[in-house]
Amino acid sequence: QVQLVESGGGLVQPGGSLRLSCAASGFTFSRYGMRWYRLAPGKERELVAHISSTGGSSNYLDSVKGRFTISRDNAKKTVYLQMNSLKPEDTAVYYCYAVPGYWGQGTQVTVSS
Fold it and tell me: Nearest-5° angle of CA 7, CA 101, CA 64?
């Protein structure tokens, strides 16, 4: 049974940081690219970041470049999203996604003073 379980979301002030984690099970994690998406109320879903199966390459949404970092630990079957210098417009539900087509349940990130 495939599972992607996100954690690490919460409420943070503008300029703050959060680290999201996504623990995978039920498939060969190290073979697939992983992504973080986000969905904010009234907006379309956005692809925030992608990382290759080995972790050797990554891509980012323009608005998060230089602030967010995606990484992975294949031994722990976990992908991370380090989010720094958070802005109110980063407020959304963040979803972990595995390239075969698997989704996590999402974790809420709220940036507000």
Answer: 55
